[in-house]
Amino acid sequence: MAHAAAMPDAAPAVPAHQPSAGTLGVYTQKLGMWVFLTSEVMFFTALIGSYVILRWGTATEWPDPTKTLAVGITAVNTFILICSSVSMVKAYAAAVHDDQPGLKKWLLTTVVGGATFVGIQFMEYRNLLHEGFRPSSGLFGSTFYVMTGFHGFHVTCGVISMAYVTLRAFQGKYAGGKYEGIETIGLYWHFVDLVWIILFTIVYLI
Amino acid sequence: MTATTAQASHGHAHHEELPFIRKYVFSSDHKIIAIQFMFLSLLFLLLGGLLAMAVRWQLGFPGQPLPFGRLLGEGVAPSGVIAPKFYLGLVTMHATYMIFFAIMPLLVGTFANYLIPLKIGAPDMAFPRLNMWSFWLMIPAGTFALLSLYAEGGSPAAGWTGYAPLSNTPVYSGVSTGQIYWCLGIAVFALSSLLGSVNYITTVINLRAPGMHWFRLPLSVWALFITAILAVLAVPILAGAIIMLLFDQVLGTHFYLPSGGGQPLLWQHLFWFFGHPEVYILILPAMGIVSDIIANGSRKPIFGYHSMVYALCTIAFLGWVVWGHHMFQSGMNPTLGTTFMASTILIAVPTAIKVFNWMGTMWRGNLQLHVPMLNAIGFVAMFVIGGLSGIFMASAPVDMYIHDTYFIVAHIHYVLFGGSLFAIFAGIYFWYPKMFGRQMDETLGKWHFWLTFVTYNATFFPMHILGVAGHMRRIYDPNTYEFLRPLQSLNTFISVSAFLLLGSQLPFMWNFVRSLARPKMTDINPWRDNGLEWTLPSPPPHGNYATPPIVLHGPYEYSRPDTAEDFLPQDQPLPAHQETR
What we know:
heterodimer; A: Four Helix Bundle (Hemerythrin (Met), subunit A); 6 helices; 72% helix; disordered N terminus; B: Cytochrome C Oxidase, Chain A; 20 helices; 0% strand; globular
């Protein structure tokens, strides 16, 4: 994912507050992100749909997730991820209003929030594997690791990208109200957050 | 990945001289990337063709040593005779190479990349670096696909559809490593295809030149745009499905394993939910290319431009609700099967609209039977046969009988070879001058077309008869079955035709390579076409247009009575008294 870091794209240099919009009135980076997120929706649909079929499409008894999974700590983790979405919104608002100290502060908060989420998930995996709960532990294990694992992978990519954006923010690349980059990565961040809320509900709680 | 592309907004200065490696190897220029895709996928096309020849040898001359068969190695072909297990590998890898590494990158990687920015008047794709990654990801994807053919323990033997549990249980097929490589190859391919499609959609929506309204887009661009939408929605499903298949093999999960509570049918649903839109990914671009070439070769406006666009959209939409027709035999509820049957047969309507519109375009046209046009007409004729046989298998009761027979093999080759590949040939002959600044030889091209057309039909038409006679697909030696023995002479005939079909590609290969050394053409617009790409020098410079072109009308203004020439490029004004559309 790191290679994506230095990806300049054809968007022309735009005057502040006025991103160049195409026919839909959406600037190219944002449009590209929406299209990409559409495909991400389909990807998670494949995984979540399979889970639904495998769990509720047969008569076999499904283990009680609360007995295996640490619901409490994951609830805290969920809260952290939601908070990082809030700080993302703050960062975007700061970028729009050209509030550079605020932008740096809120971007850093977001990175830390995302990294904490990944860290806690990593610890959770370690504990579960230690207790003998593996991907090969029946359908519950198979679906749990694939869904949360791919979500964790997405958050990790998000944290790496967000760290890069933060670095650029410290270099003053978003000064003058150039908010497009912040808004675009923000879309990805909120999407990953949203997926987690669904996953937490259907994997841990139900 | 796109997450970070998006915020890098420092524009890339076009038009500067780049070092060789950035210009031709790690290039972010859509035209170079398209040509890279073309070379790579033509190689896979050849390789896939060679595998098919080995398959045909075994079916035409069962048990006899394959000429040069010893070169394959004792492990897979003892004394030159193809081993049964390797035969299944050949069948599987032939289809995998052709679908994922030849036809799809030829239609989408090559033509979408080459044509979209040029035809809409854009300097490049929306995300050029991403586009470059889309090509370079094909290298690991292709490497995995190649490795799987000769992997330890044998090549993947579960067919290109990779049905579970055959594909995820090594004891059933005897294959483990090969199948893992196969999964990895397809997973990386999916990522590549995704990056490309995000680019095509964004580019068509946001980078059109001034005046290029939606209904002034050439049909090729329309088709490639709709295809990209299908790919963005369908390919992630394949990615998800194949990752679960991979985990079944390497992590011991049980998604598709009944023994662990998993469901083999889940694989079929996921695969075909991707697989049927994929069918249209493989044919819609071909339809678009053919529409452009037929209007040009008939010197007439395309018949029913709007209905062509709506038909494309309708086919793309219906493509999502028909996947069950691949699974009539899976034990599904017959009522559900009837629903899938009805939705499938409904697709005949937009498809027929397109076919009649092509014929309407040619009707009383000033037909120019140049090589691209011949191939385009070949496409229409062959696609009609493929479409009609499709109606047979769409009907659940008929499908019960012909399911998994050579009738299916005949059908897919009529739409994929007779359809897509003829359109690809048409497109290559048509845009080769644009790509390389040199024209291909017309006489060799005609030899190639006619030889291919005849041997192709001799190869694939008799397969309908085999199928109706009950000949199963993917069987190693038909003579094992008493009732198939009388068909051996037909099988031998098909095989000889297939060898001739491969031989018929020699004029094309020679023409393709030799024409690179021909003198540069002086004519800027050899086909007298209306597309914006023909207003540029050939090959077009980096960054395409010095100033964005202004588009003044649609792409099919041919043979207007009020213009001097019989064509009118899209940036030339219509005669004054005419109202612009």
